Amino acid sequence: MLENQLLKIAQDFGSPVYVYDAEKIEYQYKRLTNAFKTVKSLKINYAVKALSNISILKLFNSLGSGIDTVSIQEVQLGLAAGFTPDQIIFTPNGVSLNEIEEAAKLGVKINIDNLSILEQFGTKHPKTPVCIRINPHVMAGGNANISVGHIDSKFGISIHQIPHILRIVENTKMTINGIHMHTGSDILDIEVFLYASEILFETAKQFKNLDFIDFGSGFKVPYKPGDIETNIEELGEKLSAKFNAFCKEYGKDLTLAFEPGKFLVSESGNFLTKVNAIKQTTSTVFAQVDSGFNHLIRPMFYGSHHEIINISNPKGRERFYTVVGYICETDTFGNNRRINEINEGDVLCFKNAGAYCFSMASNYNSRFRPAEVLWYNNEAHLIRKRETFDDIINNQIEVNFASKKEKQLVK
């Protein structure tokens, strides 16, 4: 999207506001499918948790995508967006057996990563096929909080516990229709990914009724000009060859599945904020904006980098600013950044704001969550209204407290 288009959206819809470019989402989806075009059966399941607006889900449905869900609410969102149950896989962690059973009743694919839950589910529902999430004990990912395939991770069933899985399958007579792994996010070295895939192939040989193998995702996107990213094209070429060879050995053409979130939507997103004040201290120039980590928590939570540009003054002299929010705690978006000169009232644009940004927003400090806009067919479409005070108090229930004076009168 062009800067003048973003600036007009900020003027028309107010700030702060999230803006998503549908064309970029479609480009990323096609790029991924093209990378694995030599695979006979490929399924991309968009990770709903990255950005769960129902209009975004409908866009993915129109592209032919499936969805990966981690809560019963995301399953329900997917169904409301028009996905059929067979296009939805449910991959929760630490949820109750009741929630898994609720998802199974809806007819979606079930993915289980706990031996206890696997045995309980298989005992009660032996005719319902399930996928198993394996922990390959491979350390991958750009941050400890998003590395989920290592030996100390809470995710997945250890590869060393395969005999336990096989015993449960034999005892319950349940069917395992898929094998899944997810090692982490922001994976740079595709050799690490390929190494983990070999572990998954070896595991898959233990199960004779598979329909698909799910390799998760975790592909890194560039966060700034010249930044490195996962080489999807090279990964597609190498992993496709390995997968096709495995299918020939297995004696059946399986479906190769992925569950990308960030790769598909991160670069499509722009977060627009207005500068409330410029504050000069003895050592720092702060640009204080009309937002905070209540709207965009990733820099404070993960230490993630979001490029920040001044779309109100794109040709201004560059100066150094620390961009901060209005939350009454430290909420730094960017420290000592080189940005075109900022004046009060200017609109700043935070790049890579499509994934895990609005979906992690909150009402902290009793602030309203922002609006969301989809840029589609060269037109801005409002896809979520900005919250109001009524939204803040809607589910709150007031208790009537009698004053001390009233209590004395009662006596």
Structural account:
The chain is an alpha/beta fold and 411 residues long. The chain has 2 domains: 52-260, Alpha-Beta Barrel (TIM Barrel); 266-385, Lyase, Ornithine Decarboxylase, Chain A, domain 1 (Beta Barrel), CATH 2.40.37.10. Helices cover 31% and strands 23% of the residues. It is built from 13 helices and 18 strands. The strands form 2 sheets. Strands 1, 11, 12, 13, 14, 15, 16, 17 and 18 form a 9-stranded mixed β-sheet that branches. α8 (190-204) links the parallel β8 (176-180) and β9. α2 (22-35) crosses α9, α6 (115-124) runs parallel beside α7 (162-172) and α8 (190-204) runs parallel beside α9 (232-250). It is globular and about 65 Å long.
Name a few traits of the molecule:
alpha/beta, Lyase, Ornithine Decarboxylase, Chain A, domain 1, globular, 8-stranded parallel beta barrel, 9-stranded mixed β-sheet, TIM Barrel, 411 residues, 18 strands, 31% helix, 2 domains, 13 helices
Strand content: 15-25%
* N-to-C CA distance: 69 Å
CATH topology (level 3) name of the largest domain: TIM Barrel
Radius of gyration equals 24 Å
Relative helix content: 25-40%
Low-confidence stretches: 140-150
Number of domains: 2
Give the tally of β-strands: 18
Main CATH class of the largest domain: Alpha Beta
Form type: globular
Q: Name the CATH homologous superfamily of the largest domain.
A: Alanine racemase
Helix segment count? 13
Which architecture of the largest domain does the CATH hierarchy give at level 2?
Alpha-Beta Barrel
SSE class: alpha/beta
Query: What is the averaged pLDDT score?
Result: 93
Largest sheet: 9 strands, mixed
